Amino acid sequence: MSQFRFAETAGARIRYLDSGGDDRGAPVVFVPGFTCVADDYAEMLPAFGRRTAVVELRGHGHSTAAGPFDSGALAGDVGAVADALTSGPVHIVSFSRGTTYALLWALAHRDRVRSVSIGDYVPEEIALSDDIARGLLDGRWRGTPVSARVDREAGLATIRSARTQSLWEPLAHWQPRLLAVRSPNAPIVDDAAWARYRGEFPGAALHEFADSPHDIFRPDRSRFPALVRP
To answer: InterPro entries of this UniProt entry (predicted)?
Structure first.
């Protein structure tokens, strides 16, 4: 039965949802998007087919809302959960903006990563304006106000701490076992980025969800986990 647990890192207390069960030699560490909380994914955890933990990054849900909020600190949140699960290998799964932090940790711990799965994002850290950040934080996600999901000041600090950087090159040099999924209806992974995925990762499994918005868990919540599973 799934349980909420906490992991400690650099003065932060990070909540994660742990499915428990057999990890089959390497659990899944899933890092969701900027407006997500772990509760969003409780029903779909069995679809991954092994023990899975959903990370609530600092400032999200019931995790600490204290800084720092730069990408290195949030990558540390991912690592804290991975280390709480195992000292051995993991499968890294990400969705949307969680991809940046998941990849930063994975690139620094390549010997522990058996596969990388990316949901509708590019291997980059993307800086956003305050106007975009406020629009996200003042909006709704999956039927509830983002203000109930993300601490506003922590969210703004996270966006303001972001710096533009490409992770394409180190990821391509590494060539991990890779799955990438995109929605062609959303602007984040455009045709040029999708072509770059095809060109730089010839062995990757690439899938398009033609009926999904950026939230690739609509209309089928288990479709992405089912692709990750094998």
So the answer is: AB_hydrolase_1 (IPR000073), AB_hydrolase_fold (IPR029058), AB_hydrolase_sf (IPR050266)
Any idea where the domains of the chain sit in the sequence?
A: 3-228
Q: At 228, phi and psi to the nearest 5?
A: -65, -35
Residues 149, 37: contact at Cβ < 8 Å?
A: yes
- State mean pLDDT over 119-131: 97
Q: Does residue 40 contact residue 225 with C-beta atoms inside 8 Å?
A: no
186's tokens: 């959303």
Which of 208, 163, 160 lies closest to 188, judged by CA?
208
Pairing mode, strands 140-141 and 144-145: antiparallel
**Whole-structure pTM value:** 0.97
Strands (DSSP E) found in the chain: 3-9, 12-18, 28-31, 52-55, 90-95, 113-119, 124-125, 140-141, 144-145, 165-166, 178-182, 205-208
Task: For 73-110, write each residue's pLDDT tens digit.
Answer: 999 999 999 999 999 999 999 999 999 999 999 999 99
What radius of gyration, in Å, describes the C-alpha atoms of the chain? 16
Task: Please state which CATH number belongs to domain 3-228.
Answer: 3.40.50.1820
